[in-house]
Amino acid sequence: MTDLPQSLPNNPCEASAFAQLVQRKQALRVERAAARRRWNTWYQALDTQQKIRVDVALATRAQEIAAQFGRSRRFIPRPQRGQ
């Protein structure tokens, strides 16, 4: 997906809203990248035992989240009615 529309909106309000959306998305990307850098710096400062504990805690939480959604399945679109 691209952030650029196929055709520019004719309405100035739509263009303004689109520009705001793109700005917010970029700000969120910058914020997430900064948070990821902080986390990586924190993680690298840990000793081996602490890293193991963090890894186990993350794996446990990931399994809990995965259990909520069930097993992954291939998406097969349903046929359209009347076809």
State the order of secondary-structure elements, H for helix, E for strand.
Answer: HH
Distance between the termini: 28 Å
**Main beta sheet: strand number and arrangement?**
none
The averaged pLDDT comes out at: 87
Segments where pLDDT lies below 50 for 5+ residues? none
Quickly give the structural class: mainly alpha
Number of helices: 2
Give a count of the beta strands, DSSP E runs of length 2 or more. 0
Radius of gyration: 22 Å
Give the CA-based shape. Answer: flat
- Helical content class: 55-70%
Approximately what portion of the residues adopt beta-strand conformation?
Answer: under 5%
Would you write up a description of this structure?
- The chain is mainly alpha-helical.
- It has a domain at 12-69.
- It has helices at 12-44, 48-69.
- It is flat and about 60 Å long.
Quick recap:
Helices cover about 65% and strands about 0% of the residues. The chain is mostly helical and about 80 residues long.
Keywords:
2 helices; 83 residues; mainly alpha; single chain
How is this fold's topology laid out?
Layout: H1 12-44, H2 48-69
